[in-house]
Specification:
- Its cofactor is Mg(2+).
- Its main location: cytoplasm.
- The protein is α+β, with helices and mostly antiparallel strands.
- Among the domains are: about 1-70 and about 125-210, Ribosomal Protein S8, Chain: A, domain 1; about 220-245 and about 320-480, BirA Bifunctional Protein, domain 2.
- The protein contains 20 helices and 15 strands.
- It has helices spanning about 1-10, 20-25, 30-40, 60-70, 70-80, 85-95, 95-105, 130-135, 145-150, 185-190, 215-230, 250, 285-295, 310-315, 325-335, 375-390, 435-440, 455-460, 465-470, 475-480; strands at about 15, 45-60, 85, 110-115, 115-120, 155-170, 240, 245-250, 315-320, 340-350, 360-375, 395-405, 405-415, 420-430, 445-455.
- Helix 13 (about 285-295) runs antiparallel to helix 17 (about 435-440).
- It is elongated, with a radius of gyration of 44 Å.
């Protein structure tokens, strides 16, 4: 409609002088006319020139005076020829009209205001303020003096009006046909394509963002850790098969010399399975040796001296650490002629924990172990130094700790240059003979091992301070799409 109006008018006339007046004439909103002019100007159907005009607009206060008269006029009219008491006048007019009105009326010498009495000074007055405001409202040109006075009293404010004057452009035609954007089967068949005007290519247009899979920040960090594990000089790590979230208590705890009354084996800390609630298969001869070492010791150990129960070992659970997998691997290793091994894994573990900024009920562990003859605590510290210096943490401290399955045990602390403090980065130790001997590993074989969470270093690397922003159902998918490549160290 608006487009037809503009093009139709220009067919018979030289120029649209003012888009605002044109809009009023045609009964179309100025906004609509302006949009059409812009679009026609873009395809050079018309030639549009900007018009900018400063116009005066009534303020809210100005509008009430234009409707009710200026306060000074209202005040004058409220004073009868015989005069009136000041208090009475104020009551009649209200505080604000009385206050402004009396100031202006005194200035205009319209009234005289005594201490208690107000009387007229002029016989007749005109409300010029209202007249000027009405004029401005009707877009009639007011004189400069009035404008200055109204501006000073903040009854009017300037408003910039933008419009166009419009002439025919080089591509002018009385009707604009929308250019075709596609060659279709229909217009090919009908031959219409010969007459069609096609829209030009816009080589600067941005294409659709490419949709595709995105690696989660944890996966990116995981890849980096795998590279580190595989790249430690001279030694090659093998990945452990961690594809069983469900584990028996036996491999998760008993094989690791964790006594059956240990608090971690409580349902407050561990998720036990309802269905199937127990495991069906355990290596019976080995189970017997584990029972022995728990109950009465051996290999220089006194054991825990309690009644070890098979039912407790049979209970299925969601593994609480990937050390459950390490115990399976070492048991399998012990069955063959001895061979030194380096193993690692990075996978999910589960703990029945209250969820907060730093804890989730499921997270990922990085596990590593080296099994060889004559390894010492010095070897463990050396490997950890090597491992963590590749993460940019070459400053390490070890704190004695306790795990049922390692002796000695060490918590690992790294000095974080960014955070300027020591942060706990992992747990480690040498597996106990009570764990290794029942498996059947030779007497002189020792195993050094360590474990850490994948989430903690990832949070530090990506500057995330709430673990729920990194992993779980509250993760922002936008973050997954846009997070940068993970670079550890360097
Ligand atoms: N399993 C331990 C944990 O969950 C980590 C660990 C692994 C400690 C190997 C010592 C040796 O915290």
């Amino acid at each position: 409609m608006a487009e037809e109006a503009v093009l139709g008018f220009l067919e018979k006339n030289e120029e649209i002088k003012n888009s605002g007046e044109f809009a009023v004439e045609k009964g179309i909103s100025h906004e609509e006319i302006v949009n059409v002019i812009k679009s026609l100007n873009g395809s050079r159907f018309v030639d549009a020139q900007d018009i900018k005009k400063e116009r005066w607009q009534l303020t809210a206060e100005g509008k009430t005076y234009a409707a009710n008269g200026s306060p000074e006029f209202q005040l004058f009219m409220a004073v009868p020829p015989e005069g009136i008491l000041r208090v009475e006048l104020q009551k009649k007019l209200g505080d604000s009209v009385f206050k402004i009105g009396s100031q202006q009326a005194i200035k205009n010498k319209w009234v005289e205001m005594g201490k208690s009495q107000v009387s007229r000074k002029a016989a007749h007055v005109d409300d010029n303020v209202k007249a000027a405001l009405v004029k401005i409202n009707d877009r009639e040109a007011p004189n400069q003096e009035d404008i200055d006075a109204l501006k000073r009293r903040k009854l009017i404010s300037p408003q910039v009006w933008k419009g166009y004057s419009v002439k025919k452009g080089p591509n002018y035609a009385p009707k604009r046909r929308k250019p075709a954007t596609d060659l279709t089967r229909e217009n090919l068949q009908s031959g219409e394509w010969k007459e069609l005007q096609f829209k030009e290519y816009n080589f600067l247009a941005k294409g659709f963002p490419i949709e595709g899979g995105h690696l989660h920040a944890l996966l990116k960090a995981r890849i980096q850790f795998i590279n580190i594990s595989l790249n430690i000089p001279l030694i090659l790590f093998e990945e452990m098969p961690t594809n069983n979230y469900v584990e028996s208590s036996f491999w998760n705890f008993d094989a690791l010399f964790q006594p059956q009354q240990h608090p971690a084996r409580d349902s407050h800390d561990t998720f036990f399975l309802k269905e199937p609630s127990t495991t069906k298969m355990l290596p019976e001869d080995y189970v017997e040796r584990v029972k022995q070492i728990h109950e009465s010791g051996g290999h220089g150990s006194r054991g825990y001296v309690y009644d070890w129960k098979r039912e407790e070992a049979n209970k299925n659970l969601l593994r609480t650490h990937t050390t459950a997998v390490s115990s399976r691997m070492l048991y399998a290793l012990a069955k063959k002629p001895f061979e030194a091994k380096r193993y690692y894994s990075i996978d999910r573990v589960f703990r029945n924990e209250a969820v907060d900024r730093t804890h989730l009920a499921e997270f990922h562990q990085i596990e590593g172990l080296i099994c060889d003859r004559g390894l010492s605590l010095g070897d463990l510290q050396g490997v950890l130094h090597d491992f963590f210096s590749r993460l940019g943490m070459s400053n390490l401290r070890f704190k004695p700790a306790y795990n049922p399955y390692t002796e000695p045990s060490m918590e690992i602390f790294g000095y974080h240059e960014g955070l300027k403090k020591w942060v706990e980065v992992g747990n480690s130790g040498m597996f106990r003979p009570e764990m290794l001997r029942p498996m059947g590993l030779p007497e002189d074989v020792t195993v050094i091992a360590w474990g850490l969470s994948l989430e903690r270093p990832t949070m530090i690397l990506y500057g995330i301070d709430n673990i729920r922003d990194l992993f779980g159902h509250k993760v922002d998918l936008g973050l997954i799409k846009s997070n940068p490549i993970c670079r550890i160290g360097l």
